[in-house]
Amino acid sequence: MTTEPLGEPARALRDPQAIVEGQLDHHRDALLRKLDALSAAGRTRSLVPSGWTPLGLLKHLTYVERRWLQWGFRAEPVTDPWGDVHPETDVWTVSEDESYEVLRRRFEDQAVRSREIVASASLDDVAALGGRFDEDPPTLAWILLHLVQEYARHVGHLDIVVELARGDVGE
């Protein structure tokens, strides 16, 4: 099932938090649409020298949000905050039982949790100490802008992989 792409936030929007939240949702949507455009084999195959796969990227971005918002901003205890990378190689890893459907559901669940965290705070709130940060915690604004740039980079990477796999960049 294809849906209309979620566009960027409206230019007339004046609330900075709503703009950043809208940008994150725009990138989340672009990520999923590009993954949907790939075949099942295309999601598990690496087309780049570093060896990452589109499924590995999906899992990575799930963990990125978890690390920065749950463990980082809220200082919630999380199990295995670096579970997206192989401990010896630092390469994104996907286990045999992590299908696209499983990883997509985890990603969507994490996005819901991330939205809840962001909705309960303001941009100038400072991350709690004791989770990811023991000193010099960033503001929510800093974290959200970091997430936007992380998504923009990785969705751009995925554009290249989709183009190599299909001959176009998809939606």
Number of helical regions: 5
Quaternary structure annotation: single chain
Uncertain stretches of 5 or more adjacent residues: none
Radius of gyration: 16 Å
Q: Provide the CATH top-level class.
A: Mainly Alpha
CATH superfamily: dinb family like domain
Assess the beta-strand content as a share of residues: under 5%
Major beta sheet summary: none
Helix-strand category: mainly alpha
Termini separation = 14 Å
**CATH level-two architecture:** Up-down Bundle
What's the domain count? 1
Describe, in plain words, how this protein is organized in 3D.
The chain is an all-alpha fold. The chain has a single domain (22-166), classed as dinb family like domain (Four Helix Bundle (Hemerythrin (Met), subunit A), Up-down Bundle), CATH 1.20.120.450. Helices cover 55% and strands 0% of the residues. Helix 1 (16-37) runs parallel beside helix 5 (140-166) and helix 3 (54-73) runs parallel beside helix 4. The longest helix is centred in the last third of the chain and has 27 residues, at 140-166. The model has no long low-confidence stretch (mean pLDDT 94).
List keywords for this structure.
mainly alpha, 171 residues, DinB/YfiT-like, 55% helix, Four Helix Bundle (Hemerythrin (Met), subunit A)
Q: Gist?
A:
This protein has 171 residues and is mainly α. It has helices at 16-37, 40-44, 54-73, 100-119, 140-166.
